Amino acid sequence: MVCCNGSRCNSTYVLIDLMDRQNVRHLITRLSFAVVFIGIGIWEIVQPSYWSFYVPSILAKFANANLITMVQGAALIVIGGGVLTGAYLKIFAALGVLMMIAILTDLIVSFGFTDLIIRDSGVLLIALALYFDDTKYLRLTK
User: Fold this and answer.
1) Nearest partner of 82 among 73, 70, 69, 95, judged by Cα
2) In contact, 89 and 83? CB cutoff 8 Å
3) Which end of the chain, N or C, is less packed with Cβ atoms under 10 Å?
């Protein structure tokens, strides 16, 4: 494997090959996931009152809804950052899948079938695609 500095490598970033469509698809998928997770995570931390409406009432009984929202925002940023860097990609993608399943389950139970279900199902599918993608492009490898 050739690294960014042209030498052989064991644990560094792989040289970018934008002419390979699989690599481009992989990069776009990772960026799409990261933009959503990091963007919403930042928003949940900066303006938790906007998002605290979505905190399940059972959780709000045990802790402040704004605090729960901010903790979830931090988790979204960590997961999105992990996918963006590509380090431990399968683990972060799996966490993203679990997060999206939890969010979708709560939305369906709380609000029924809405436009949010359609949007968040798309994000879930992106997370699943990343989990099953074995591309080694622009990520830490061994």
Assistant:
1) 95
2) yes
3) C
